[in-house]
Amino acid sequence: MVTAFVMIQTATDSIPECAQKISEIEGISEVYSVAGDWDLIAIARVRRHEDLATIIPNELSKVPGVRQTQTQIAFRAYSSHDLEAAFSLGLDG
Question: Nearest Cα to 71, choosing from 20, 19, 2?
Fold first, then answer.
């Protein structure tokens, strides 16, 4: 499974509409409205890296109101559960 975080700038008056359309794209698992330099962050979860090449430029970027995107591909996921297990094994030093 490949996970990517897509930061999205939209037209100011179309944030909710963009979020709704993006959330309907297959491979997009979540969309968050955020504060800061970006308006939305979408989480894409796909089987292959090549799937991102279809979803992001061919679908997400073409949603009306989307002005700019930046994609960060995740290498590894950490959760509090994973970190607690690692520290209990003595991996902290």
Answer: 2
Query: How far does Cα 67 stand from its chain's mean position?
Result: 16
3-state secondary structure 61-78: HHCCCEEEEEEEECCCCC
User: What pLDDT does 90 receive?
Assistant: 54
What pLDDT score does 89 carry?
A: 56
22 touches 40 (CB < 8 A): yes
SS3 at position 58: helix
Strand order in the sheet with 40-46: 28-33, 40-46, 2-10, 66-73
| H-assigned helices in 1-93 | 15-23, 49-58, 80-88
Q: Write the pLDDT tens digit of every residue in 35-87.
A: 999 999 999 999 999 999 999 999 999 999 999 999 999 998 887 765 565 55
